[in-house]
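Moderator note: this is an archived Q&A kept for reference. The question asked for a predicted structure of one protein chain; the sequence and the answer are reproduced below.
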Amino acid sequence: MGDETGGSSRQGHAPGSTAETMITVGILTCSDRGARGERADVSGPTLHNLVLDRLGGVVRQYRVVPDDRSAIEAAIREWADDHRLDLVLTTGGTGLSPRDVTPDATRAACDREVPAIAQAMVLASLRITPYAMLTRATAGIRRRTLVVNLPGNPKALAENFDTIVEVLPHAIDIIRGVDTHGGGGHRQGHDHARPAASASPVRTSASHDHGAPARTVSSDPIARDVGGPPC
């Protein structure tokens, strides 16, 4: 995955509306070991595929940085100010470890917080495991760029992304200044709609490697896409 990667075109939106504009995305993996080349980045490519397949966006920037507040903050500022990306997604560094500084860097870089995005991921994740309450992840806006912290665990990342993906295009339209209350600005017919719930249990917490006992979750409309503990 290079610095600029193409994505699938967005379908099913009103012709001529701002919703036709491709959502541009930056993916920032925060990992000491990844930045040193000691471990291959798995969460970044996972998130890249989700952006293409579920959001229909295009990844313009990708970078692996250490768990360093200055490096994370600088990347967010650069991508918002210089590259003017619509969305920056970080992965990793959202927990309680002294080296988990991604939320702190995000708050420092952003002009305003959007706390309910992170709250929604926590509420969804709590249906899987109580360890979800240990996240410090946040979301915010820098200029016209939305920034969202996601966990480093690839499975938890995917489940948390599914929790918020439905509202991201609408949020980005609002930040862009689109009149979402008018006729042409509202996104409809999203081709990244979440899959229907199955009749059988869909998630357990066994794969989130936080030591919690596995717990089966019933497939109600809310629980079907929830994630495990952000980390």
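Archived answer notes: The domain at 21-179+199-225 is CATH 3.40.980.10 (Molybdenum Cofactor Biosythetic Enzyme; Chain A).
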